[in-house]
Write a structure and sequence with these properties.
The complex is a heterodimer of chains A (146) and B (86). With 146 residues, chain A is of the alpha+beta class. In chain A, the strands form two sheets. A four-stranded mixed beta sheet of chain A has the order 1-4-6-2, sandwiched between helices. In chain A, strands 5-3-7-8 form a four-stranded antiparallel beta sheet. In chain A, a hairpin with a 4-residue loop joins β7 and β8. In chain A, α2 runs antiparallel to α3. The N and C termini of chain A lie far apart (43 Å). Chain B is α+β, with helices and mostly antiparallel strands. Helices cover 21% and strands 38% of the residues of chain B. Chain B has two helices and seven strands; from the N terminus they run βαββαββββ. In chain B, β4 and β5 form a beta hairpin. The model of chain B has no long low-confidence stretch (mean pLDDT 97). The chains are: A alpha+beta (146), B alpha+beta (86). The interface between A and B is medium-sized, with 29 and 16 residues.
């Protein structure tokens, strides 16, 4: 199984992957491309990755989560390529016997993704500029036209 | 200490790939050596690489490592810009 795709994410498929009669709570996290007041006219984000390491690190991350919550079933996909505002870039689904574990595992996964999974994003803006984004969510350099 | 010649493959991603204008390069070096040594050699030898931080995130053979981690002949060393996924 690969943990990335260049196609729109299918939440239904991910939920089906973790569905189990033993699970009474399923928590879903969707990360979506944003163009808020502070974003400066983002039209899309171009996501790139070190794909081989992404797969290896997702494997280690899922093993870590499995060690912490043995009863939780987790599915995760990161979308790569150019993703328009409003579309999902990552989907995480955690299903557990009880809701607390599902919430905890889902939160753990997205926080660790942001710390460990080698993915980068470049904002594509309405004025034609392109800006790499740093981990705090802010651009690392001025737009090219400034 | 006995030294031997070695070569590692260095990979660049995202902004770092733009800075050096390529996605990979082979680096010859004297072993034993560390990831930090590889970073220093890349910054010295490769045009544009001076703009890569002296202490970037790095991986060896698909695993995150510290800069004092050793490298072996044939390793793949990746220099990783600040991670921004999700």
């Amino acid at each position: 199984m690969t943990h990335f795709t260049r196609e729109p994410l299918s939440l239904e498929r991910l939920v089906a992957e973790v569905s189990s009669p033993a699970c009474g709570g399923t928590c879903v996290f969707l990360g979506t491309v944003r163009n808020g007041p502070a974003e400066g006219g983002v039209t899309a984000i171009e996501y790139s990755a070190y794909e081989a390491m992404l797969e290896a690190e997702f494997g280690r991350l899922l093993a870590d989560a499995g060690g912490r919550w043995p009863d939780v079933r987790i599915a995760v996909r990161h979308r790569l390529g150019t993703i328009p505002v409003g579309d999902a870039s990552i989907a995480i689904v955690a299903a557990a016997p009880h809701r607390a574990q599902a919430f905890d595992a889902c939160r753990f996964m997205i926080e660790e993704v942001k710390r460990r999974i080698p993915v980068w994003k470049k904002e594509l803006r309405v004025d034609g500029s392109e800006v790499w984004v740093d981990p705090s969510g802010r651009p690392t350099a001025k737009p090219s036209h400034v | 200490m006995q030294t031997t010649p070695g070569t590692v493959q260095v990979r660049f991603f995202a902004r770092y790939a733009e800075l050096v204008g390529r996605s990979a390069t082979a680096v010859s070096l004297t072993l034993p050596a560390t990831v930090g040594d590889v970073v220093r050699l890349v910054r010295e030898r490769l045009p544009g690489a001076g703009a890569i931080p002296e202490r970037p995130l790095a991986a060896v053979n698909l695993k995150h490592v510290r800069l004092d981690a050793p490298v072996q002949d044939g390793d793949e060393v990746a220099l990783l810009p600040p991670i921004a996924g999700g």
